[in-house]
Amino acid sequence: MNQRTPLIAGNWKMYKDCSQAAETAKTLLELTTGVKDVDIMIAPSFASLYLIGNILKNSDIKLGAQNICHRKEGAFTGEISASMLLSCGCSYVIVGHSERREIFKETDDNINKKINAVINAGLIPILCVGETESQRDAGDTFKILDKQIESGLKDFFADNLKNLIIAYEPVWAIGTGKTATDEQAQESHKFIREKIEKRFGKSLAESIRILYGGSVKPANIKQIMNMPDIDGALVGGASLDAKTFSEVIKYK
Ligand code: PEP
């Protein structure tokens, strides 16, 4: 058994207005009272961060953001800074989600700068990596993971990355209902851990949490969590309903 505390993180994407988000957060708090040995995080839209931050205050559910701007402040219309996220009560930031990479054309270089901003602010980064279906079909999965990690973490040292979390999210499994098989997920997680070891050493490789993301739901979480290199899940669709998400959280 490893010493890594599992993390179950919910990504609410661009769903829920403020009152819906508040309602879901309150219900989730009730349904997860007494849950032990699992870290829980939810990432609502920017619009409801402050509100949800107040609801979660002094609770065991942590607040996360879905994105961040790499700059500290300035004339960057539509962006959000690390200090703004901290002031809402955030402790985690999702960086490089495949929807940001694909739809909003974020590059590994942008992602590298964002990780830097997150770490400098004392926030916890969740770096998302993963291959598309055509990249998998072409046999390029490991090549893609290697590149995303190498470039995303360029110029960092093990000491800066103590809190880093990586989410392996095969793009073809996100929001599609298709889940990677346990073996496919484990193989990629193992590759990622070995990559971290080669690049940053054994100690970070052993402590880093690597989450799986891609159509995780109550029916498949338990078997996914049985894999030795899977330390939690980043959950989209199944995190939107408090009861369903609480069942994922209570997978044990
Ligand atoms: C995600 O958005 O990170 C995700 C994994 O979504 P879903 O669980 O809906 O596939």
Question: What are the defining features of this structure?
Answer:
252 residues, alpha/beta, binds phosphoenolpyruvate, TIM Barrel
Structural commentary:
There is one protein chain. The chain is of the alpha/beta class and 252 residues long. It has a single domain, classed as Aldolase class I (TIM Barrel), CATH 3.20.20. Helix content is 42%, strand content 16%. It has eleven helices and eight strands. The chain has helices at residues 18-31, 49-56, 82-88, 98-102, 108-120, 133-137, 141-152, 182-200, 202-207, 218-225, 242-249; strands at 7-11, 39-43, 61-65, 90-95, 124-129, 165-168, 209-213, 232-235. Strands 1-2-3-4-5-6-7-8 form an eight-stranded parallel β-barrel, surrounded by seven helices. The radius of gyration is 17 Å and the shape is globular. The mean pLDDT is 97. The protein binds phosphoenolpyruvate. The site of phosphoenolpyruvate has 13 residues, from strand 8.
Give a short summary of the structure.
This protein is an alpha/beta fold.
List the ligand species.
phosphoenolpyruvate
Count every beta strand, where a strand is a DSSP E run of 2 or more residues: 8
- According to CATH, what is the topology? TIM Barrel
Order of helices and strands: EHEHEHEHHEHHEHHEHEH
The CATH architecture: Alpha-Beta Barrel
Instruction: Provide the number of structural domains.
Output: 1
Relevant CATH superfamily = Aldolase class I
